[in-house]
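User: Show me an example of a complex going from sequences to C-alpha cells.

Assistant: Sure. Here are the input components:
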Amino acid sequence: MIPANAEWLPAGSAGLVALSLGVAVLATAWPRQAHRIGLLGALAVTAWVLGLSALFLHAGPDPNTAATRIALGGWEAPLGLMLQLDGLSMTLLVLTAVVALATSLYSLGYVHDRIERRQFWPLWLWLWAGLNMLFLSGDAFNLYITLEVVSLAAVALVAFTGTAAAVSGAVRYLLVNILGSLSFLMGVVLLFGEHGVLDLVLLEARTEAGPTERMAAVLMTAGLMLKAALFPLHVWLAPAHGSAPAPVSAVLSGLVVTGSFYLILRLWMGVFAPLTTPAFGILVGLLGVGALIWGSLQALRAGRLKSIVAYSTVAQFGYLLVAFPLMLVDPGAWRVVVFFAVVHALAKASVFLAAGTLQHAAGHDRLAELGAVLRARPRTVFALGLAGVSLMGLPFSGGFIAKYLLLEAGLGTVLAGSLIGVLWVLAIAGGGLLAAAYVLRMVASAFHRGRRDVGEAVSPWMDWVPLGLATVAALAGLAGTLTLNTLALTPGAP
Amino acid sequence: MNGLAETVAHTLAPGLLYPTGGAILFALGLYGLIRRHHLVLRILALNIMGSGVFMVLLGVAARGEGAPDPVAQALTLTGIVVAVSATAFALALVVHLTRLTGHAVMLPGPPDDDAPVEDISREAHHADGGPAESSAGEDRSA
Amino acid sequence: MSGVLLLAVPLVPLMLAVFIGLRPGRARLNRLVPWAALPGLALAALAPPGLEATFSSLLMGTHLAVDPTGRAFLGLTAGLWLAAGLFALSDRRDDPRRHRFYVFWLLALAGNLGLILAQDAIAFYLFFSLMSLSAYGLVIHSGKPEAWRAGRIYLILAVIGEVFLFAGLVLAAHAAGQSSLAAVAAARPEGWAQVLLVLGLGIKAGMLPLHFWLPLAHPAAPVPASAVLSGAMIKAGLLGWMRLLPIDAAGHAALGEALVLLGLAAAFLGVAVGVLQVRPKTILAYSSISQMGLMTTGIGLALLLPEARGWLLAAVTLYAVHHGLAKGALFLTAGMQRQWPVARPARAAFALFTLLPALALAGLPFTSGALAKNALKEPLAAEALSGWLAHTEWLLTLAAAGTTVLLLRFLWRWRADLETATDGLDRPRWWAWGGLSLMALLLPLATLLAGPTALPLSVHDLYGSSLLWPVMLGLGLALLAWRGVRDRETPRVPEGDLAVLAEAAWDSVRRTRRRLALPGPWPPRIPARMRALRLGARRRLEAAERMLTRWETIGLLFSAAMLGLYLTLLAG
Amino acid sequence: MDGGWLLLAILFSSLGPGIAIFFLPEHRQGLRTALNLGGAGTKLALVGVLLAGVLRGDEYRFSLPLMPGIDLVLAADALSLLFASLSAVLWFVTTVYAIGYLEGSPRRSRFFGFFSLCVSATVGIALSGNLITFLIFYEILTLATWPLVVHRGTPAALRAGRLYLGYTLTSGLVLFTAIVWLTLLAGAEGFTPGGYLEGLAETHAVTLQVLFVLLMVGFGVKAALVPLHSWLPIAMVAPAPVSALLHAVAVVKAGAFGIIRVVNDVYGAELAIELGLTAGLLVIAAVTIIYGSIQALRTDDLKQRLAFSTVSQVSYIILGVALAGPLGVIGGLVHLVHQGITKITLFFCAGNFAETLGIHRISELDGVGRRMPLTMLAFTAGALGMIGLPPLAGFVTKWHLGLGALEAGMPWILGVLVLSSLLNAAYFLPPVIRGWLGERREPWHEPLQGHAGPTRFETHWMLLFPVVFTAALGLLVGLFAGLGLSPLGWVSLIVQRDYSLPGFGL
C-alpha cells in the first residue's frame, strides 16, 4: 500500500532533471539574460528539490515505498535509462541545492562583468544540472555521461579566468578527468560484457566475486579516485583551485569531488559489495591516513589561502577513506560517511567563498600579506573561523557530530577486536588537530595587532553569503538525526 | 601442432581478439599520456585509450553468435560522441594555452605561492557598487 | 544581649581601626585609641559569671564566653592596653606615620581581647592570627633596618606558629569531633596534635628554643608596643596552653616534665644571656623570656600534679597578671628616660614608679611578685616530686635571684642615659606609667580581698624568707659583677642569640631564591634552529608535492593504485 | 522537558547579547554596554529564579536529540547551580570591570562578543546534564577563550594563544575519545549522584581505569594539573579581565568541575576508591599544590605569581574531591566558589595596579597602599584568604580539607596543606607588606591609560567597584559560612544528598 503522495515522486525526480536541464539550456540560448535566468532557476530548482525531499520523507519510513525508480521514456531496464531516487541521492540533491544556491547568490556579487556573466552562468548551470543527473541516474553508462558533463563544465569554469595558470590548471584537470572517465568507462564495459546489463540494481543482483568484476572494480575505483582527488591522486586539485574563481572552487571542492566519491560509495555498497576483502579495506584506510597527513602537511606549507583550503579538502577526504574499513566491520557506518561528506561540503564551500571575498578585497590571496584585510573584515574572518570549526570537528557544528559518529564507529571496531582499528581511531582523532593547525594559520593574522585595510569594496552578497553558509554548516549538527533518517530510506543498503 | 592451431584460431575469434587488442591500446595510451609532454600528443594518447575502450565494447557487442548486440553499439556511438567533444574542448584549451605561454606544455604545478593572481571580480566593481560602497564604509569605520 | 556585649569587646577596636584607616588625620579619632580597650576592661570587671553567647552563623559556629581564667586575662590585657595606649598617645604625638601605628595597634588589640573570649577553636585561631599579624606592623613601625630585621624574624616565626596551631587544632578538632576548646581539651590531644599545639603556642609564649624573636622585636618596637607585646600578647600563648593542653584529672607526665624542663631552662638562660646585654629594652626582653619560663614551669607542674591543677592554674594566671602589669610598667619606664624631673617630690615619685615594678618582679615581700611566687610554689611543698623534679621548688626560688641581677643590670644600663625633662613633664605618660607601677601593690590587695575561689591565699603569702634571700643573693652577685666585670658597650652575646643562626639559614634561602628566579611570564619564542628546521621541512614538502605532480608520477601512482586494489581484492 | 525554557533562557541571556555585540560597529559604545550589562543582569535574575526553584525541589530539564540515542541535555541540580550562580555573579562583576578596563581601546566589539560567548559556554558546562553536552560546551569554551587570550595581538599574545590552543585542543581530543568510548560502554547516561558505572565494575575494571586516566588528562589540562599546567602562566599576557575570568570562573574551573562530575556523578566515589583511582588523583593534586606554590615563590611578576597560585589553589578542589569523603568533598566544592571569588579579586587588583600606576612587578609595589588604599585592602583580603586565614573564605576550605584528610585517614594531606599554607604566606605576604609598609621615594608616574585619569576615587570607578565588591564577598562568605545559603551551607546540602550521611560542618 503506497501512500498517496509517493506517486508524485517519479514525476518529481524526472521533473527535477528536466527543470535543471531546461534552465541550463535556456541560459545557454539567451546569454544576455543568463544571470537573471540563473538566479530564478537556482531558486526554482532549490525549491523543487526541497519540495521533493519533503515528499520523499513523507513517503517513508519504509525505504521501498520512498525510493523510486523511473524508466525514462518508458524503456525499462536493461534497455532504458533509469533514474533512481533513494535516501542517498535525495540527501546529496539537497546538499547540492543548498551549496549551489549559496554559490549562485555569491556569484551575483562576484561575477558582474557583462561578458563574463554570459560565459559564467550557462557553464555553472550545466554543472549543476550535471550534478543533479549524476545523483539521480541509475545506470552505469549514464553515470559515465553525467560524469563527463560535470567534468567538462567544471574544467571550463576552472579555465574561466583565462590566465596561463588557469588554463594550464584546467588542462591538467581535463586530462586527469578524461583519464579517469575512460578507465571508469572501461570498467563499465567489462561489467556490461559480463552481465549484459548496465542498470545498477540489476548488476547488483547479478555480480559475484569473479575476475571480470574484480578488474572492473579496480578500473572504475581507480578512475573515480582520480576524479575525487583521493590521495595520492590528488595533485590536480590545488592547481585547479589555485586560479579558479571562488564560486567555482567552492563547487569543485564542495560538490564535484563529492559527486565522484558518491559514485565510489554507491558502487562499493551495491555492485561491488561482494568483492570487498579486509585487505582492500585496510589499503583504502591506509590511503586515507596518508591523505590526512599529507593533505594537512601541505595545507600547513602552502602559502596561498586557496591552496590551503584545497589541500584541506585532500585531508578531509582522508576521513572518508578511513571510514571504508569501518564500513567493512559495521556496514551501517556508510550513513556516517555520507553525513560527513555533506557537512564537509557545506563547510568547505563556505570557506572557499570567504577566501574568495578576501582575495577580492586584497587583490591576491597570499597569506603572508593578507593580514590587513583580515583585520578589517571581521565578518568574513568569522565565517572562515566558523566553517573552520566545522572542519576541525569541534562543537557545536555538523563536523562535531560527524566526527563523533566516525569515532564511535572506529572505537566500535577496536572493541570488536580489530587491532588496525586503533590506527583508524588515532587518525580520526588526530586529524582534527592538524585541521585546527591550518585553520588557525588562516585566521590567526586577523588577531595580530597592525594595519587595517578593508581593501576593495565587496558586494553585500560576497559579504554575507559565506557567513550564512558557514552558519548552516555549523548548525548542520542539529540536522544529524534528520539526515541519518533520510539516508536510512535507501533500499538494499544496510 | 593441432593444439597450437586451435589456440591461434580461438585467439583470433573476435570475442577474445577485440578485448585483448582493446586492453593493449588502453595500456599504450596510458603510457603515451605519461611519457609525452606535448599536450597534443597527450590528447592523442587519451584518444587511443578511448578507442581501446570502444574496441573492447565492440568486442562485447560481437560476443556470441548471431547479430551483434545493438545496445553495445549504441553505447559505442555515444561514447565516441562524448570523446570527440571532450577532445575538441581539450584542443581548444591547448590552443589558448599556447597563445598565452608560447608552447603547448603545461606549467609545473602546484601553483607557486608568489605567482600573481588575476581576479576576474576586481575590475568594474561599481557594477553593483552601491551597497558594496555602503558596506565598505561601515567596514572602514570598524 | 550578652552576644552584643561579648562581640563589642573585639568589635569596638576593629571599628575604630576601620575609621582611622579610612579617615586618617582625624585628631578626634586618635584620642579614642586608648579607650578602645575599655569595653574589655568593663566586661572583666562587671560581667556576670558565666556570660556567654553562641553565633551559629558566624564562621562555622562561634562561641564566646567569659570564664574565670578568661576574666583575669581580660582584665590584665585590657588594662595594660589602656595604659599603654595612653602612653602611646603622647609618645606618638609627633610621629608622621602615627595613623598607621594606631591602626595596627587597634587590630592587635582586637585580636588580643578576642582570643581571650573565644571558646571555640576557629574563633581562637581567628583572633590569635589577627593579633600576631597586626603586631608585625607595630614591630617594624620605626622603619629602621633593625626594625625590618626584627619584623622579618617575628613574622616568619609568627606564620610558622599560625600554621602549627592550625594543624594542631584540626587534628584536635577531628579527635574531639567538634571544635569547642573545652571539647578539644577534654579529648586530650595526643602525639602530633599535642606537639603542634605546644610549639604553635610556644612561639608566641617565647618558649625555648623559639624565643629569639623577643629580644629583637622589643627593642625595635616603640615603647608602648613593646609594653603590650611583652605584657599582654605573649600571654596569649600561655592562655592557649591552659585552654588546649590535657590539663585534667589524669594529668600528663611526659609533657609536664618537658615543659618544666624547658621552663626552668628558659628561666636561667634568659638571665644568663640577659645580663650580657647592653640595651635596656633587650635586657627586659630576656627577663620576659625567663619569667615566661617560670609560668611554663607552672603549666608543666599542673600537668604533673593533677590534684593541684586547679590551684596551679590559678597561680599561673595570677603570675601572668602580675608579670604582665610589672613588665608593662618596666617597659614604660624604659620610655621615661627623658622625663627625669627637677622637683624633689616628683623625683621621689619617679624613683618609686621605677623601682616598684622591678622589685615586684624580683619578688620582694608585699608586692604582687611575692604573692605570685608563693602561690606558684605553694603546692610543691605538699606534693613530693620524684627525681630531679624534686628540686623544682628550690630552682624556682633561685630564679628570683637571677631576676634581681637582671633587673639591676637593666636599671644600671637605663640610668646611664637618663635626662632631665627640659620642657615640663608629660602628664599622660606619667599617669599611665604610675598607674601600672602602683598595680604592683594594688594587685595583691585585690587578690586577697576578692580572692578567686581556686586560690584561697592569705596574708602570710605576702612575705617569707624564701622570698628575701634570693633578692639578697641577687644584690650580692650584682655588686660583685659591678665591681669585677668591666662593662662594655657591645653585648657579649648578640641580641636574639639563636636568631643569628636562623638568619643565616634565611639568607641562604633568599640567595637560592634569587638564583632560581623564574624568567618573565612571556611565552617562549621558537628557537632559531627550530624555525630553520621548519623552513627546511616546508621546502622539502613543496618539492615532494611537485614531484607528485609530474605526469610520470601520476601515471605511476595510477597504475600502482590499480595494482594495489587488484591485489588486495585477490587477497581476500 | 519541564522548565527547560528557563535553562535555555539562562544560556541565551549571554549568548544573545554576545552575538548581537559581534555585529555592533565599534563606536556604538552605549548600546554595547547596555547589551553587556543587560545580559549579565538578566542572567543573574534567571539564575536566582532557578535557585529558588531548585530549593523548592522543582525539576528543570531540557533535552534535544543530536544523534540517534544521544541527546543534548541541560539539567539543573544543586551542584550545577553552585557553578552556575558563581559564574553568573562573577560574570556580572567582570563585565563591569572589563568595560572600565577596556574603555577607549580598540576591537571591543570582538572582545565582548567572545567574552559573552565564553560565559555562555561556562554556564552551559554548569548546566550540562551528561558527558557529551559537557564536552560540547567545554570545547566551545576553548574556542571562545582563544580570541580573548590573543586579544592584545602582540606576538607574545599570539604565541601564548598558540600554546593555549595546543594544550586545550589536544586534551579536548583525548577527552572526546574517552567520552565516546565511555558512551559506547555505558550508553549516554546523564550525570547521576553516585555514578552509573557500577555495572561495569567487575567486567571492565581495567578499561574503566584507563578511561579515568584519559578523562583526567582531558580535564587536567584546563584544571592546570602538573605537568599539564604550562599554558596557564603564559596565558597571562591576556588583559586583566580575561585572566580573571580564565582563572576564577571559566577555563580552570571548567576543568575542575569536569573532574568533580566524573568522580562524583559518573564513576561515583565508591567505585573510584574501589578502582584505586582517587589515590592517584590525590598524589597529583598534592604535587600540583606544592609545585605551584614553589613556582609562585620564584617569580617577581605579580600576574605570573597569581597564575602559579591558581595552579596550586585549583588543586585544592581536586584534592577535596579525591578525598571522596563528605568533609573532603565539602572542602573541595566550597573551594570552587571561594577560590573563584578570592582569585578574581586578586586579578582585578593586579589589573588596577597595572592600569592606574603601571605596576607589574612585586618589587614596585612599595607604598602603593597609600596611593590606592581600597584596592590594596582588597588585595590584602584576597591574599590572606588565599593563605587561608579566618574569617576569609580560604580558611573555611582549608579547615574542611584538613578534617576531610583526617577523616579519610590520610594525615599526610594535612602536612601538604601546612606546607602549602607556609608557601602561600611566603609569596603572598611580601606584596601585602610592601604595599602597606613600604616607602616609595619617587612620585608615581601616573596613569598610562587615559581613562584612569583624575577621578573622585583612586582609580576609575568601574575598576574600583568590582574589586571592592568581590573582596567584600570573599569576606562575607567566610564570615557567615554558617548561614544556610552560604556556599558552605549549599555545598553541605549537596554532599548530604550525595553521601546520604550528615555532612557535619565543624
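The lines above are the inputs; the final block is the predicted structure for all four components together. Residues 247-497 of chain C form one domain.
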